[in-house]
Fold this sequence. Notes:
By secondary structure, the protein is of the alpha+beta class. The chain has helices spanning 44-51, 57-65, 136-144, 172-180, 253-260, 314-323; strands spanning 32-36, 70-71, 87-91, 106-110, 114-119, 150-151, 160-166, 185-193, 202-210, 217-220, 226-236, 239-246, 289-297, 304-308. It is built from six helices and 14 strands. Strands 4, 5, 6, 7, 8, 9, 10, 11, 12, 13 and 14 form an eleven-stranded mixed β-sheet that branches. Strands 1-3-2 form a three-stranded antiparallel β-sheet, with no helix packed on it. Residues 2-8 and 320-328 have low confidence and may be disordered.
Amino acid sequence: MSAENGMQDFRRTAPPRAASSPLPMRDGVAASRVYLPPGPWPTVLDFLVERFRFMAPQVLRARLDFGAIVDDAGMPQRADTPYRPRQWLWYYREVPDEAAVPFELDILYRDAHLVVVDKPHFLASTPGGRYLHETALTRLRKRLDLPAISPVHRLDRETAGVMLFCADVASRGAYQSLFQQRQVVKEYEAIAPWRDDLVFPLVHRSRLQDCASSFAVQEVGGEPNSETRIEVKERLGALAHYHLTPSTGRKHQLRAHLSALGIPICNDLFYPCLQPRHDVDDYARPLQLLARAIEFTDPVSGEKRRFESRRVLAQARSEVSTSAGTVA
């Protein structure tokens, strides 16, 4: 059960700020919540069945009968509990048969305030959808025994590279404001097709908005809200190794920009055309996009920080190995 899935009508009611969760963190995963807006539902079960319409009613009833859904005071709700609006309910998400991601999450740096990791491809940044335990956040909470650790920013599940987490609740806002105020230099690398008619370096600007029918984004007319500088590191035959410097941080920005230029990133399942979703990832074909480096002035220590990924894009490595006469 996820509070992110459900009917659009429920999102029109602005919920009040939630109290602290009455449920403790469990195996590195914090409890999820759902808000009860004003409405005609006689019981909690009636509401949940409509709210989570993609979940079988008998599953919801079983969870209520088991006492697995509680209110702000930690009191278990039952199937026949009268519906009381303007409150939160709390529960633990469950992801049956969650597949293990067979790649390590490397820690590049750690102090009392900041944790910097080198995220592998295929590992989600935070819990959501099909991923709960196999995420960078959950792994760090368990590995470092830091239940309050939280991401300062996010990378797509398909993207590898440098990602920042804040280990101290009091410092979280200071680090997040760096990204909000564009005081962070982010560098990426990508492997994508080569085009003779494009002149590099170039700066691509466009207006990106969410697609109505998928998780992808699309370029539309209007004032640009995204900008990426694109340079060529190396020509690799029909491909090229690109250096990307975004000055904005829109969802899927780099993937959408390169696709719009006719050079979609290798192994991208979203751009230029959305590919059918598979239950099992093809680990031999990771998206050829890497968050290479991140640079900023630390708001806590005042020091200049630069962190670089130790990873190498597979197709760049393959090209180097092939040219050297070895098998990748």
